[in-house]
Amino acid sequence: MTTVIPAIVASSATDSLALGTIERRDVGAADVRIDIRWAGICHSDIHTVQGDWGPQHYPLTVGHEIAGTVAEVGSEVTKFKVGDRVGVGCLVNSCGECANCAAGSEQYCLKGAIGTYGARDLDGTITQGGYSTEVIVTESFVLRVPEAIPYEKAAPLLCAGITTYSPLRHWNAGPGKRVAVVGLGGLGHMAVKIAHAMGAEVTVLSRSLSKKDDALGLGADHYFATEDPETFRSLRSSFDLIINSVSAAVDIDAYLKLLALDGTLVNVGAPSEPMPVNAGTLIGARRSFAGSNIGGIAETQEMLDFCAEHGIAPEVEITSADQINEAWARVLASDVRYRFVIDVETLKA
Ligand SMILES: [Zn+2]
Ligand SMILES: [Zn+2]
């Protein structure tokens, strides 16, 4: 048995999105049914639908930044009850048995973590995302959204928040650490807020000076324009950690030279083209070039609690379901400060 619900649907890689319907499974014993209230728009949604990361199963509903309330729980659910404010991020399942799952790193499941949309779930169906009125998720992949986080701002934490929180934690951002954030978009602006709250000295590296005032307001201590070649000379060997949030290929070797001894540059953006690195740049100061993919479920809960405790939330612009194509066009044009969130009530009318 399935239930048909309203959703925003992509019917191909090239068609505009349209209002339509999808099917949801019945609530199983370990499942939670979530009445979706807010759904964030992530650049990955667009990459996926457009086929930039490989062929997709259409029709497809995307969205992996979900905030809503529990509407129904299965008979074995213990962590949630009807009415709880909850979230779902980029993952809805994993094998639960491999070494990485056992370590709480479900995103690195050796059998392949199940993404919130466009992935083949353990039951064989293709997962459908949060641009819809409800979702059914096994309780172990549901997050608790603290009341201190404004409801309409919670959704983007589930992807943009955890994607930046996890590497900042892993590489010990904190007092005495010099952290640079490359790119000030959905991911970058969260990296600035979180690194600042962790106590690090934060520098934003953005193409032009146009976002300088914003960056300083978000908590950055310094700001430099990367279109100015002097930036790469004056900041050489200046940072312990660089978070690169840009999803297009950049001259990564030039950024690696900005790392101090033992520094690490972590890519969280995923350009489709390779980025050449000179071994000499790494050897010259024992530098590391790394990557990081979202976070595990326990760490995502830790991030939500951290944001609640420190009063951190994304800067959002609310949009409606019938404006989705305009919103996507503005995301592609980097014309949003800093995350769109769909008011899912507009999908229910
Ligand atoms: Zn995302
Ligand atoms: Zn696993």
TrEMBL record:
Q: What are the alphabetically sorted keywords of the record?
A: Metal-binding, Oxidoreductase, Zinc
PROSITE patterns recorded: ADH_ZINC (PS00059)
Q: Where is the Enoyl reductase (ER) domain?
A: 12-342
Q: Specify whether Oxidoreductase is a keyword of the entry.
A: yes
Write down the EC number: 1.1.1.2
The chemistry this enzyme catalyses reads: a primary alcohol + NADP(+) = an aldehyde + NADPH + H(+)
Name the domain of life.
Bacteria
Please state what class of enzyme this protein is. oxidoreductase
Quote the SUPFAM superfamilies the UniProt record gives.
GroES-like, NAD(P)-binding Rossmann-fold domains
Q: Which Pfam families match?
A: ADH_N, ADH_zinc_N
Q: Keyword Metal-binding: yes or no?
A: yes
A molecular function (GO) held by this record is: alcohol dehydrogenase (NADP+) activity
Question: What is its cofactor?
Answer: Zn(2+)
User: Which residues are listed as membrane-spanning?
Assistant: none
Which family does the record claim for this protein? Belongs to the zinc-containing alcohol dehydrogenase family.
Which PANTHER family has this protein been placed in? ALDEHYDE REDUCTASE
By what name is this protein known?
alcohol dehydrogenase (NADP(+))
